[in-house]
């Protein structure tokens, strides 16, 4: 697992965006796995800037989002479809038909989840999956106890996640209690995983995910099993890491090797 610590939130977000931009330049029809929440907003802001100022072209990119609240239609202001249209898709040149966000209003979720997995496979699989992390160590809505082999399915949210997400709603009672989410196994199938975490509130989860045991109680720890997983952090999110000095040394060595 590669651990990159940048000096602040802006720098960590930019670094994540540059990884995505580099992939899109190299592979214009890349398949991106995307995330919602407070964390990726600055990263998406940088992608929008690169599109506007440097002509980063998204016209052939395809995207699959991690999750959606069950019960919210795509035009609900708190739906993740709405979030993505507002914070990214509506501000770059990606055709909306190339973007996939799980539907929050299906009757038959067994069928829907299978079709979502099929669509990812038919697109050739995800080249790069962007991830956030919950305070309980979840990735997507794979709450503690989720199987590390899980696929796209419905998941009940924990009270901690409901409370954390209440800030986006008028009150906690309005936060849906169910979500449709890619599974940990779905996420691990991506060719590359990039987890972005910022702020002191994530320091404990990052410590568990990066340096703790691989466990279904901290689903982000499954990234330790992935061949190409990178965790990019600001100083606050990295504050509890015990092996910080080593990560920095590894990163300096990697950058020295890559520079001419
Ligand atoms: P956040 O959520 O970016 O809003 O902190 C991350 C997550 O729960 O995965």
Descriptive tags:
single chain; 15% strand; globular; 260 residues
Number of DSSP strand runs = 10
Secondary-structure-derived class: alpha/beta
> Which regions are unreliable across 5 or more consecutive residues at pLDDT < 50?
none
- Give the strand order of the largest sheet, numbering strands 1, 2, ... along the chain: 1-10-9-6-2-3-5
Q: Count the DSSP helices.
A: 8
Specify the helix fraction band.
Answer: 25-40%
Work out the radius of gyration.
Answer: 17 Å
The bound ligands are: 2-phosphoglycolic acid
Shape field: globular
Give the termini separation. Answer: 24 Å
Question: Could you give the order of the helices and strands?
Answer: EHEHEEHEHEEHEHEHEH
Q: Tell me about the largest β-sheet.
A: 7 strands, parallel
Q: Give the amount of beta strand, in percent.
A: 15-25%
Mean pLDDT across the residues is 97
Q: Can you characterise this structure?
A:
This protein is of the alpha/beta class and 260 residues long. The chain contains 8 helices and 10 strands. It has helices at 9-26, 41-54, 80-87, 109-122, 159-165, 184-188, 203-211, 244-258; strands at 2-5, 31-34, 62-65, 67-69, 99-100, 128-131, 153-156, 178-181, 192-197, 229-233. Strands 1-10-9-6-2-3-5 form a 7-stranded parallel β-sheet. It has a 3-stranded antiparallel β-sheet with strand order 4-8-7. β2 (31-34), α2 and β3 form a beta-alpha-beta unit. The longest helix is centred in the first third of the chain and has 18 residues, at 9-26. The protein is globular and about 55 Å long. The relative contact order is 0.18. The mean pLDDT is 97. It binds 2-phosphoglycolic acid. 2-phosphoglycolic acid binds at residues 37-39, 132-134.
